[in-house]
Specification:
Oligomer: single chain
Helix content: 55-70%
Strand content: 5-15%
CATH topology of the largest domain: Alpha-Beta Plaits
Distance between the termini: 38 Å
Shape: elongated
Number of strands: 4
Mean pLDDT: 83
CATH class of the largest domain: Alpha Beta
Number of helices: 9
CATH superfamily of the largest domain: Reverse transcriptase/Diguanylate cyclase domain
Order of helices and strands: HHHHEHHEEHEHH
Largest sheet: 4 strands, antiparallel
Length: about 240
Amino acid sequence: MKKYSPKSHFFKITKIIQTGIIFATLIVFIFFILLNSDFRMALFRSPLAIFSTMLLWTFFLANVVFIVLDFRIFYKDLKASDEIQRAAYLDDLTGMPNRFSCDLVFQMYAEPEKIQHVGCALIEIDNLVSTNEQFGREAGNQIIIDFSNILEEIGSDYGFVGRNGGNEFLLVIEQGSSQLMESFFDQLKNRLKRYNALELNKPIEIYYKYVLNDELHATRFSTIITEVYKKLHHKE
């Protein structure tokens, strides 16, 4: 999640202007020497003029070098800033949106009119604990990573998907319907079926519940989330 920075934009604009001024001045100086023979002859006859010209060229070259260095430092800092933002918004293990990102999504739906047709689902890897116990934590982490990749691959066409912490994954569809939810989970199950055919010893089994606000008629997003939690943790 990159954020627009007015300071970085101002830096780039000023450096571009500075570069333009330097090269425009340099071009004018070169053309003046080439087109004015009297000035050119006087220049080569005067040691002071030659020395001044050398200083001017040194000034031009130094400015170009410093502009290049400034841009290198700027993009290095920008990359570091992006990495910090990535660490803040993306889950360390899976690289998908983390709990903080999920909280930001919740804030997006603070107004009642924005959640009228929202659909929300929570998904768990049902056999994660047994996988950890049988094969170790590393194997459990691997199926979390694999499932996250599958979830993002399918979920990106439907809405927001994120890891809401631990063994809990979130799907939010802005214009949710039972058809869309069932379509999503049908695709997810088919994709997991293909995955499990290759990972017979460590398959991925999921358990999920979803809520449609067209049916719940909640005025707060927190009410929708609470309802999904209730459904998820009261397994039938």
